[in-house]
Amino acid sequence: SGIIKRCPECNRTIINNDCKTHGTVEPIPDLRMRIVIDDGTGSIATTMNREATERFTGVTFDAAFNLSKARGEDIVVKDLGDRLYMKHLKVRGDAMIDEYGAKINAKEITFDDVDVNKGAKELLDEVEGML
Predict the structure, then answer these.
(1) What is the pLDDT of residues 81-108, one digit of tens each?
(2) Strand partners, 13
(3) Which helix (H) or strand (E) holds 38?
(4) Among 26, 30, 91, 95, which one is least packed by beta carbons within 10 Å?
């Protein structure tokens, strides 16, 4: 998550300026988020491209890039993570399973305003009504 480096030839994420396909390249910086969503019964990974990340977090690529240059790449990941940790989310996108497991390529992620206390009371009332 945060500022990543992409291959200018194939757009894949690269590490240490090395693309698995094209060897050593001059990377292109990009912004993305990878999130693990867990509902207590299972988890799924989701990836957001630059546009979805900017729209969802309100953090532009330029702001994130400048912050990473000034204070290091880890601060961008921490800032983005702090905005999401333990939040209820709605995710829309394309689901797939590959060698890394299930994931969603998110087209849209929004915060879901869930009233946990209200939901718990409604469930308790329903269960008590069955007794």
Answers:
(1) 787 777 888 888 999 998 888 899 888 8
(2) 6
(3) strand 28-38
(4) 26
